[in-house]
Amino acid sequence: xxxxxxxxxxxxxxxxxxxxxxxxxxxxxxxxxxxxxxxxxxxxxxxxxxxxxxxxxxxxxxxxxxxxxxxxxxxxxxxxxxxxxxxxxxxxxxxxxxxxxxxxxxxxxxxxxxxxxxxxxxxxxxxxxxxxxxxxxxxxxxxxxxxxxxxxxxxxxxxxxxxxxxxxxxxxxxxxxxxxxxxxxxxxxxxxxxxxxxxxxxxxxxxxx
Amino acid sequence: xxxxxxxxxxxxxxxxxxxxxxxxxxxxxxxxxxxxxxxxxxxxxxxxxxxxxxxxxxxxxxxxxxxxxxxxxxxxxxxxxxxxxxxxxxxxxxxxxxxxxxxxxxxxxxxxxxxxxxxxxxxxxxxxxxxxxxxxxxxxxxxxxxxxxxxxxxxxxxxxxxxxxxxxxxxxxxxxxxxxxxxxxxxxxxxxxxxxxxxxxxxxxxxxxxxxxxxxxxxxxxxxxxxxxxxxxxxxxxxxxxxxxxxxxxxxxxxxxxxxxxxxxxxxxxxxxxxxxxxxxxxxxxxxxxxxxxxxxxxxxxxxxxxxxxxxxxxxxxxxxxxx
Lengths: 209, 324
Known about the structure:
The complex is a heterodimer of chains A (209) and B (324). Chain A has helices at residues 2-5, 13-41, 76-79, 107-110, 132-139, 141-149, 191-194; strands spanning 60-62, 119-120, 126-127, 156-157, 163-165. Chain A has 209 residues and is mainly alpha-helical. Chain A has a three-stranded mixed beta sheet with strand order 1-5-4, with no helix packed on it. Chain A has a two-stranded antiparallel sheet with strand order 2-3. Chain B has 324 residues and is of the alpha+beta class. Chain B has helices at 3-10, 18-40, 43-49, 52-57, 66-84, 115-123, 142-145, 182-186, 212-216, 260-263, 270-274, 291-298; strands spanning 89-91, 101-106, 136-141, 168-173, 192-194, 200-202, 223-224, 239-241, 253-254, 280-284, 300-302, 314-318. In chain B, a hairpin with a 5-residue loop joins strand 5 (192-194) and strand 6. At the A-B interface, strand 4 of A face helix 6, strand 7, strand 10 and helix 12 of B.
């Protein structure tokens, strides 16, 4: 049996060596590239918050965060120079277009006073705007659990296959998260409105609800 | 001689190649036209009816052999491609192994916007005029709902400028795909039945329009084509399922099919995709990891008219403890 496996037709030692070197080389390139990408993606100041690894399943496709509004400019454009006033207060001159209706929160609960173009978690870890959902889930842990299961928030795509997810800010304005009323689509016709045509005899009258 | 008999007789002469198949179809078309022409004595009228006579005489969907089904699908495809001037595909995708569909609707989120209603109309080729909606959104007084939902109190005709309105509660209702479905039990022709994946379907060519099923359905989920259905050619959805969204003739009953043409391909129903508040959930009841199972195990759920023991597979739930 064993003599069959080590027969004269087996590959010669030089080709073993070659294969080993090729494999090793590939592995090194792979590790370096992966590590490099990771370093690039993660700003030095931001810790990898565990939530990030918990996106529902292998087939999950996280929809990109919606783009900032057209009027957006980096906060640091104005705020970099002046020292932060950390006293919670009603803003009078600037940002009066932002109606804050989100519990008892005020700006610096979420926005970082030290790194103006970042948000921050309760433990002061910085979070870039596109990962704002890490911030939301500090308080809304039950929503996070439901969202991961696909029950909170909208899913599109496939019930079996690729699913598309959205993060919190795709649907909620973080400054005022409650849904805003919208115009409904037209109501169905009443039986008396369809009477007279060939479709006459009121469908709804016999619907027997 | 029924259409399927003709199929069988024509079978040996076809070599199975595409061109042979096409010529067979041509032959069948001719045969049907002659048949109707002979009956009515008006060849021009027969032209318009040439396909319908074959549908009229065909076997029930459940009795069709694979070959007969294939012939039916191609014939229906050709009929609707011609009628609407675009390539129509008609599938007969069967139920998936180990799948029973369930639906979840979060009543704590629904805002009553009716986006689902019109997404459904577009996807499923419902008649625009006369108007047919498979989904009806009922509006209730919140106070009244606290004493229990009475479907008869629901108002489908609400039309404020904006929804949700203060003090109101919205409940979309369509086919509940009952395990013990009264509608299919009363059908005298076997034109409606429950598939192994739980979808209650209708064979439109076998429906005789008696509307017994509509009287039997406790949810008002079935709708009758009193007039000739009308869908503009540019709005027709060409992705069809033979017992799903193929355009219906006048005089038959129709209803929600859980978007059979989509869901049997693994996709979400159109209403799930349309809902702006993410209140609609869909999945496999037999899969413990599915969202439908999660909500049944973790949320307060209810079914409509549970006292009737129809065992709906449409579950309403409260996703949020905080209501508007």
